[in-house]
Design goal:
Helices cover 43% and strands 21% of the residues. The chain has 11 helices and 12 strands. The longest helix has 23 residues. The protein is elongated.
Length: 307
């Protein structure tokens, strides 16, 4: 499924989590890996004492230096049997360089490591992470420090109760990706679906409204929808989890309960004012996870970066 993988390295980290995870995937199946780095130094663009040709030579010198650095990094890993390419680009917006490269090279997966805060026990998500989640048409795997052991758990988060064709197609992509990885890892595949509770204001504004019956009806609807999603999936599940509450809170709770190694979910890729008003579930969920996140986009998603 993931045969052509773009691996984004972090020049500020000794441990390259994205590379380690990419090699893990490549050991499970044949895959071509491209180690990618985007570099830029504004000072070189502002050097008026040099000609355009001299500036270009300096840029190429830095690119060559970074390519050698990448080759040195790779030697730290047992990767002799894998096909690995190297690509360094001079670009002032890393996320644009990553997405354009992924599209032009027909990559089917982008892997990037997250960064731990130096003093706090939390993870920092850079603007590049958020841009990739919102704008990359390919699946994006954001890697934390959690391992991928055999016989662990993979959690697929679906929106089973939605009648939207976009969400239904997205559910299928989520299940396909989660099922594929869980089979390769001999992991237990779990499903999770969240549904909203009744607004507390309803009982106040409409005293005769039966909140309890409403909740039962909503739960039954989502329960049946989740069972239907599982029935049509081409993979077997170890468990289904139906939770009342918002996905931002409930998905991380289920993942922690299962000690999941990976959470797979869909993101519509909202940007601009829509993202500000409605938010992006993937972005809110990942901040609370202690495992990797694989975010997939709907079929036909068009990246604003390349259009």
């Amino acid at each position: 499924m993931f045969k052509n993988i773009l691996v984004v390295l972090d020049p500020n980290q000794e441990q390259q989590k994205a590379l380690a995870r990419a090699l893990h995937i490549a050991r499970l199946q044949p895959a071509r890996l491209t180690l990618f780095l985007s570099i830029y130094d504004f000072a070189y663009e502002m050097t008026t004492m040099l000609s355009g040709e001299e500036r270009e030579q300096m840029r190429q010198g830095l690119v060559s230096e970074r390519e050698q650095w990448m080759r040195g990094i790779l030697k730290q890993y047992a990767a002799e049997q894998h096909r690995v390419d190297f690509l360094v680009q001079w670009h002032h917006r890393p996320f644009e360089a990553i997405i354009r490269t992924a599209v032009e090279g027909s990559y089917d997966l982008i892997i990037k490591g997250t960064r731990k805060h130096d003093t706090l026990q939390s993870v920092i998500f850079t603007p590049t992470d958020w841009h990739l989640l919102r704008k990359a048409p390919q699946p994006v795997l954001l890697v934390k420090d959690h391992d991928w052991p055999q016989h662990s758990s993979v959690l697929a988060a679906v929106n089973a109760g939605s009648d939207s064709e976009v969400h239904q197609q997205l559910n299928n992509k989520i299940l396909k990706a989660a099922g594929y990885i869980s089979q390769k890892l001999n992991s237990h595949l779990h499903l999770v679906n969240c549904y909203p509770g009744a607004p507390a204001s309803i009982a106040v504004e409409i005293p005769e409204f039966d909140t309890h019956q409403y909740q039962l009806n909503v739960r039954e609807h989502h329960e049946n929808a989740l069972a239907e999603v599982a029935r049509h999936a081409e993979v077997e599940f170890s468990g289904s989890h139906l939770r009342e509450g918002i996905p931002d809170d409930e998905i991380p709770l289920v993942a922690n309960e299962l000690d999941a190694e990976l959470v797979v979910l869909g993101t519509i890729g909202r940007t601009g004012i829509t993202a500000a008003l409605l938010g992006n579930t993937a972005e809110h969920v990942i901040e609370q996870l202690n495992c990797d996140l694989l975010a997939v986009k709907p079929e036909g998603f068009k990246s604003p970066v390349v259009n």
